[in-house]
Amino acid sequence: MVIVVLAFALHRRWMACAAMLAFSAHWKIYPIIYISSILPFIGVEDDPKVDLCSDIHGLLQYWLRWCLNKKRLAFIAVFLGSFFLLLSLTYLFWGFPVLEHTYLYHVGRTDHRHNFSVYFYPLYLGLTSSIWSTNPQSRVLGLAAFFPQMVLSIYGGFLLARSLVLQDRSATTDTKKTSTLTARSSMTEDQMKHLPFIFFVQTFIFVTLNKVCTSQYFMWYLWFLPLVIPHLSTSTKGGGVSMYKALLMIAVWVGAQALWLSQGYLLEFLGNNVFPQLWASGLIMLAANSWIVASLISSYRWDE
């Protein structure tokens, strides 16, 4: 479904993209993060000039007009309408359990079983009672964990997409007004070929910082790689991904998981008390993933 969302976005079929994105988010909530990287590309030809941002008044005026862009509002309306239509239909069949197990469950989720997430051990230590509401450590941390995940995946995706649009806007500054709209729309279409990489970065970050992370979640971002790899710089200068660095990145990614799994084996199969070591392995895995995604962003050819 995410593949179809991406295909509609790349072909600028915004209403179909919004409907399919709603269906995807209804099936699995995480694709909702892609809204932030899609919106900057919608209705670019109708956006006000960035020159308005010279002062506070101009900045407020600019973002008000940006948010009230008719095409963006139409996209949001179709998304919300489709999403709540699907939610209503399923609610009619199954009632409140649909809300509980599909959406509300994720808000208060405090899995105590070990997993790749760096949050599992602090959440586990907070489970001092069988009643979740009496565990402030688990409750507060479970909610606080959303903040870095949402900021980096949603706002990060918005900034990447927004920066591409601003590059297009600056490239059309000296053209006549009658040709600017056409040129701006055309150049934005060229920049949209980078959308798969932005989706990849958002998903990678979302999975890495999720409260619960298991191997099956890796498939959410791994399928983007065939679309991303051809756009990576292989130059040894400027932080490109050479063959040596690519092998190193694979080794680090696999090695960090192997380290964690070795501790998981000691805990799960041998019954050894290695919770601190397992959590430390999760921190190493977080550091490894952070280095990998930063390296990929720096080596990506944005200007091609």
Outline the fold blueprint.
Blueprint: H1 2-10, H2 14-27, H3 35-38, H4 56-67, H5 70-94, H6 96-107, H7 120-126, H8 136-144, H9 146-171, H10 177-191, H11 195-208, H12 219-222, H13 225-228, H14 243-268, H15 275-299
Strand and helix order: HHHHHHHHHHHHHHH
Query: Approximately what portion of the residues adopt beta-strand conformation?
Result: under 5%
Instruction: Provide the residue-averaged pLDDT.
Output: 85
Total helical elements: 15
The helix content is 55-70%
Secondary-structure-based class equals mainly alpha
Shape: globular
Give an overview in words.
There is one protein chain. The protein is an all-alpha fold and 304 residues long. It has helices at 2-10, 14-27, 35-38, 56-67, 70-94, 96-107, 120-126, 136-144, 146-171, 177-191, 195-208, 219-222, 225-228, 243-268, 275-299. The two termini are 28 Å apart.
In short:
The chain has helices spanning 2-10, 14-27, 35-38, 56-67, 70-94, 96-107, 120-126, 136-144, 146-171, 177-191, 195-208, 219-222, 225-228, 243-268, 275-299. With 304 residues, the protein is an all-alpha fold.
Task: Describe the structure using short key phrases.
single chain; 304 residues; mainly alpha; 15 helices
